[in-house]
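Field log, afternoon session.

UNIT: design team B
ACTIVITY: writing a sequence onto a fixed backbone
BACKBONE:
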């Protein structure tokens, strides 16, 4: 699942911390969930692409996706959908990875006071596989496919390509921008991803403005 792959990209395997701020991680994860829902046919956009809604209420096997569907109770703009879906999403995705034996979640303290969590990678191959695939595309060694293209587009939407992947920031951002507008997906999927990307970016900007204010 995209949200699981994305969470693995955000985890710093050296110290168990996240490579980006909480808002960016949560918004990107929400975007990944919405892309999965669109790809599964559960969610669709109206003709002008401004609002999405549930079009197939069939229950999903993935608990994170199913829980997210319940939050999309009416047609809404992508930014609003991101803001609804992101609530507790990081914990839910981490718990799902933990249940698969990929990650172990441990409590820690920030400055010895504030409670936080560490994410210990327990199945290195899982993280290595997704990081290798995304790195090769981000560095231009091969073209994007639906999986890597979606992941890089989401990282780009929250300005975190250089945080999740090692390399020159300027070069990778230029490559990521090209990928975000590329033709690695069909027209319908591409339009959905573009709308979700815009929603993720807007939600991230709004969260940043709120925190600075």
């Amino acid at each position: 699942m995209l949200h699981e792959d994305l969470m693995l990209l955000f985890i710093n395997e050296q110290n168990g911390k996240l490579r980006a701020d909480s808002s960016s991680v949560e918004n990107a994860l929400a975007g990944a969930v919405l892309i999965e829902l669109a790809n599964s046919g559960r969610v669709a956009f109206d003709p002008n692409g401004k609002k999405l809604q549930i079009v197939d209420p069939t229950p999903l096997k993935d608990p994170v996706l199913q829980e997210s569907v319940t939050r999309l109770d009416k047609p809404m703009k992508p930014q609003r959908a991101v803001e609804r879906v992101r609530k507790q999403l990081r914990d839910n995705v981490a718990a799902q990875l933990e249940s698969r034996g990929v990650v172990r979640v441990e409590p820690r303290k920030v400055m010895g006071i504030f409670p936080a969590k560490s994410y210990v990678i327990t199945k290195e191959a899982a993280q290595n596989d997704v990081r290798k695939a995304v790195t090769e595309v981000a560095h231009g060694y091969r073209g994007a496919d639906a999986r890597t293209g979606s992941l890089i587009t989401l990282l780009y939407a929250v300005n975190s390509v250089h945080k999740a992947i090692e390399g020159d920031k300027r070069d990778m951002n230029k490559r990521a921008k090209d990928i975000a507008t590329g033709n690695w997906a069909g027209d319908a999927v591409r339009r959905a991803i573009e709308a979700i990307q815009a929603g993720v970016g807007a939600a991230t900007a709004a969260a940043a403005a709120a925190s600075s204010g």
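LOG NOTE: The radius of gyration is 16 Å.
NEXT ACTIVITY: expression trials, pending approval
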